[in-house]
Amino acid sequence: MSSSFKLLGSSAGPGVPSFFCDCCGCQEARQNPQLARTRSGALLAIGSTNILIDTTPDLRTQLIREQIDTIDSIFMTHWHFDHFGGIGELEYYVKLVRKQPLTLYLPPSAIKEFAAAFPGLSDIFKVIPWQFGHPHSIEDLTITPLPAIHSVETAGFLIESTTKRLAYFPDTAGLETEVKQILKGLDWLICDATFTGDNWFPNSHMSIDQAIALGAEIAAQSTILTHLAVHYSQAMTVTELQHQIKPHAQVQLGYDGMCLKL
């Protein structure tokens, strides 16, 4: 059975370009829409089964762009708007096409917040709290939530096939020692690289340099930078970002639509 992991979006909260920003990175994305970035989310495809990781405010645009017309379940990393803001886009898919609730795995601390924010969606989702370290088996893959370091309860997800291991941590300020040990020797670490210069929020996010260092520390075969905000701290174009990571052969810039075969 073929499986893949696709980045639906690769930006931090403001997106690239941002409507309010005229930095060099946003100018570049306006001039070349292929370099634009929607908010960070992903799709895990296992055969014909489609699993969303986060539901960004750009979800409708992302699903149409990637020609995805079915969703089977959702895993939410955490309860911040740039990661859950598009969840309402699934209401009419469930009502008109699927005809049964979607399973929504949430952080335990977000259960009440979800119910308060979206009382009209109680019949659209079957809400289940995920647990750190508890694996979910889907076909021939497992998905395991692992602790991230962020301002609210947050998971990254370790996805394992019979031959490949991928970890997705779009929002985290490094990783605890125990998590690093679990992830040693990964095929792919896809991780938070929000800041292009100084890290304004060192307890919640990483800079590009910190993400590169984390990938090296856990000996990931490939480190893919996501949740990028090209205007934070030090504005950069994609050309400048590529130049910055060029000395690191195992490091890649993530981009919307990037697909990895598991």
Note down, in words, how this protein is organized.
The chain is of the alpha/beta class. Helix content is 23%, strand content 26%. The chain has a seven-stranded mixed sheet. A seven-stranded mixed sheet has the order 7-8-9-10-11-12-13. The radius of gyration is 17 Å and the shape is globular. The N and C termini lie close together (10 Å). The model has no long low-confidence stretch (mean pLDDT 96).
Short description:
The chain has helices at residues 24-31, 59-65, 81-84, 91-98, 111-117, 177-183, 208-217, 238-245, and strands at residues 3-9, 41-46, 49-53, 73-75, 102-106, 125-129, 136-138, 141-147, 155-160, 165-169, 188-192, 222-226, 251-253, 259-261.
Number of strands: 14
How much helical structure, as a percent, in the residues?
10-25%
Structural class: alpha/beta
Strand fraction equals 25-35%
Distance between the termini: 10 Å
Within the largest sheet, what's the order of strands?
A: 6-5-4-3-2-1-14
Coarse shape: globular
> Biggest β-sheet, characterized?
7 strands, mixed
Computed Rg: 17 Å
- Give the helices and strands as they follow along the chain: EHEEHEHHEHEEEEEHEHEHEE
In oligomeric terms, what are we looking at?
single chain
Provide mean pLDDT, rounded: 96
User: Which residue ranges are poorly predicted, with pLDDT under 50 across at least 5 consecutive positions?
Assistant: none
Q: Helix count? A: 8
